[in-house]
Amino acid sequence: MGSPRHTISAAAIVINERQEILLIKGPRRGWEMPGGKVEEGESLKEAAIRETKEECGLEIEVTKFCGIFQNVRKSLCNALFLAKPIGGKLITTPECLQAGFFPVEEALEMVTWKNFRQRIELCLREEEHPFYVEF
Predict the structure, then answer these.
(1) Cross-sheet strand order for the sheet of 98-103
(2) CB atoms within 10 A of CB 107
(3) N or C: which terminus of the chain carries fewer CB neighbours within 10 A?
């Protein structure tokens, strides 16, 4: 039996001073929060910061760890953080066809991919932190 193989990713729910949420529109999943795979030797927090910068040009400061979503069958773990923008400017990239800040209710309606909406909702409910969701 070989070594276990797991995919670890990190994502940020970025909230600006107007209490709007950053969403990016990816080519495959539509509107979502920025995030991606954690690289070897990188912390979960560093990955969320790097992925946000790479995907949409925004520099962020992580303000809180929210929780973990784990897909047991696929050996996937996603760490989620709250963050605030501290620099950079929104750009488009191959991973981000559009980006913007949206009011919470509008943002939640825009996110249609699997359980991404649930992830955002849980991150916004700070009394539920830290959470662990297994599926």
Answers:
(1) 30-32, 20-26, 98-103
(2) 21
(3) N
How confident is residue 62, by pLDDT bands cut at 50, 70 and 90?
A: very high
Residue 114: pLDDT above 90?
A: no
What domains sit in the chain, N to C, each tagged with a CATH number? 7-134 (3.90.79.10)
Residue 1, pLDDT score: 60
* Residue of 72, 68, 52 whose CA lies nearest to 60: 52
The token duo for 101 is: 């800040």
